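Task card 7
Instruction: Convert sequence to structure tokens.
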Amino acid sequence: MLLIEKFDRSVNHRIFKFSPNIFHEALKCVLKGETEFHVVGGKNDFNLRYVDNQKWAESFSAYPDSPLFKRDPLYPPYFEYDENDKERLCFDILEGFDSVWFEEANEYTVVLCGIFLKFTELSITCKDSIIKEFYPDDERVVLTDNVPDTSEKSTLRVVKDFYPSAFICDFYTMDQVVLFHHIFVYQWLTDLPFDKIKYAEITVARSEGIGSVLTVYGRAKHFFSRFGYTVTLQPGSARYSDAILEKYFNMPLTPPDSNEENTIYVTNYYGILFTKMLRYSTDDDFNIEYLNPQFVSEMKEYGDAVFGDKKMLGILLRGSDYIASGMSGASAPVTVESALPRIREWMDEGGYDGIFLATEDKDILSKMLDAFPKQIRVVSQERYGIADFDELGVTTISEIDSIRHPGDDYDVFIEDSTANYFYALYLLSRCESFMYSGQCGGSTMTKALSEKGFRKMWCFAQDKEVD
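Output:
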């Protein structure tokens, strides 16, 4: 992103003549390693300074502390884009808005302003008078010192500092980087003609658990359904072998006829995962059709044998890597101590025969067994404590598994672990009511697996009963 700053005569930089194409000219030089420029010849001279989008976002305290969101860039750089190619612009983010307010004039807000003037009927206000350098005679661009109230839902607020829209699912307020990415996401994905594309290949991060893999696949499938593309997984990219994926799931691997001329390659899926289109598509995260029918049949048989007609309260409590990696907001883990009062209330009022607990955290399991003697049922699986992450200096379960199960033992362990994980989720789905720590792949899949739905559900991260 190019920031517009006060003209500084004390430092010499490349000089550009002011023109509507000024940002594209400067970005060509950014690719050569230059970062600061003088712009002269307009009503007022000014400087341009380039900042990397991801580094810019991470420079703000509002950016999440979790190292999971600092490994790969969430916000890609845009060195090339075409603001006049309407067919390759995405306007989904503007649905429901009548107007847009910009706090600062910079490369992205100036370009977006031009797009909105050309292709939409949005009213446009801006707090920064520099915007008039670019649109001096356009009456639709109005300067204002007023800041729209956050309760005003018909106005899109575009702030100058990083704002964690995707993390808190608030897309009424956005920073310019997030908004720019929403508008140009198609161009970020590919420069191929849309009608020539057949596949969208997802490269899955090796740190992701199977719940995340399925979520990424489901959300990507939802996103690309508008184009009719077949979403595939890059063979060998996940920490689960292709044989395991094909044995238990219906997620197609990229076929041999895929090539550079008919395939979109999504090597950084965070780029679409953190758009509004995907953050609000949680109903599409998982579908039972993603599982092999034989696998589903075996789980049903097991559930009939274990539960029968018992009336159970299902509880999913994420801990371990959710604590170690600093997950927050809608995905925040919950302590057993804080969850106990609500669990006891539901047990007393509901008259349940017992609790089925799904957790990968051995500390959580121990505390729940102490709190509810002889009432806890679990599936046997490997579990982890915070001490394990501290001892090994890691933040994800996948890192621990790789260390503890090296070589040929890894695939055997992962297959067993994967099967047990889904048996636990399936048994949760058979419970009468469901309580869960927060948003995660496990809670989403449990809801999707439930054939009858739940009488009641409670989300601890939101501290409320949910539909």
